[in-house]
Design brief:
6 helices, C56_PfpI-like, two-stranded antiparallel ribbon, 195 residues, Class_I_gatase-like, seven-stranded mixed β-sheet, peptidase activity, alpha/beta, hydrolase
Length: 195
C-alpha cells in the first residue's frame, strides 16, 4: 500500500502550488489527499508577476475537489504534510482543526513542505520559532515575528521542514522535500544529531 501525504488548502490557494506537488508526489508513487475546511470543489487562483505591478496579480485558476474536510483528517495516517500558498493561508491559519493537524506533524517530527504564504499557517501554530525558513519575500517580517530566521532563497531545509518562496522555485522545493522524504521511509525525520 502506498504511503500517504496530506495537502491542506482552501479557496484562493495558488493553483500551481497545490497541483504541482500533488502531481509530483503521485508520480513518485505516494497517495495524496487534499483536505480543506469542508469537502467541496475548491476554487484556486493564479498569481503572476507583471511589469509595472508592485506585487503579484491574481486571476481565477483551476477548480479541484477536496478529498476530506479538516475534521475528517487523521494526521497519523500520513507520513508528510504539504502547505501551499496563495491567499488561502491568510484565513486557514484561524482554523482550529487545521492548527491541530499541523501541530501533530511537527510533534511527530514528520516532514512538512510549505511554500509562499503557507508559512503563515505554521507561524500561527508556533512551530517556526528557532527555525530557518523562506517564504514569499513580503512575509519576512512575519517569519521574524514568529521567531524564525528568514533566508531569501529558492528552498530552505531545516530538519524535516522544507520551505520555498513561490511557484517559480518549485523544482528546488520538491527536490529538497523528496530528499527529506527518501531519507525517512517511515515518515519520521531524524536529524543527524538525533535531536
Amino acid at each position: 500500500m502506498p504511503q500517504k501525504i496530506l495537502i491542506v488548502t482552501g479557496d484562493a490557494a495558488e493553483s500551481l502550488e497545490v497541483l504541482y506537488p500533488y502531481q509530483r508526489l503521485l508520480e513518485e508513487g505516494y497517495e495524496v489527499d487534499i483536505a480543506a475546511p469542508e469537502r467541496k470543489t475548491l476554487r484556486f487562483v493564479v498569481h503572476d508577476f507583471e511589469p509595472g505591478f508592485d506585487t503579484y496579480t491574481e486571476k481565477p485558476g483551476y477548480t479541484w475537489p477536496a478529498d476530506l474536510s479538516f475534521s475528517e483528517v487523521d494526521p497519523g495516517a500520513y507520513i508528510a504534510l504539504v502547505i501551499p500558498g496563495g491567499r488561502a493561508p491568510e484565513y486557514l491559519r484561524n482554523n482550529a482543526e487545521l492548527r491541530k493537524i499541523v501541530g501533530a506533524f511537527f510533534s511527530a517530527d514528520r516532514p512538512v513542505a510549505q511554500i509562499c504564504h503557507g508559512p503563515l499557517i505554521t507561524a500561527a501554530t508556533g512551530h517556526l520559532s528557532g527555525r530557518t525558513v523562506t517564504a514569499y519575500p513580503a512575509l519576512e517580517p512575519d517569519m521574524q515575528s514568529a521567531g524564525a530566521t528568514f533566508q531569501d532563497t529558492e528552498a530552505v531545509t531545516d530538519g524535516p521542514l522544507v520551505s520555498s518562496r513561490a511557484w517559480p522555485d518549485h523544482a528546488a522545493w520538491m527536490r529538497e522535500f523528496l530528499r527529506v522524504l527518501r531519507s525517512s521511509p517511515s515518515g519520521t525525520y531524524s536529524s543527524p544529531s538525533g535531536a
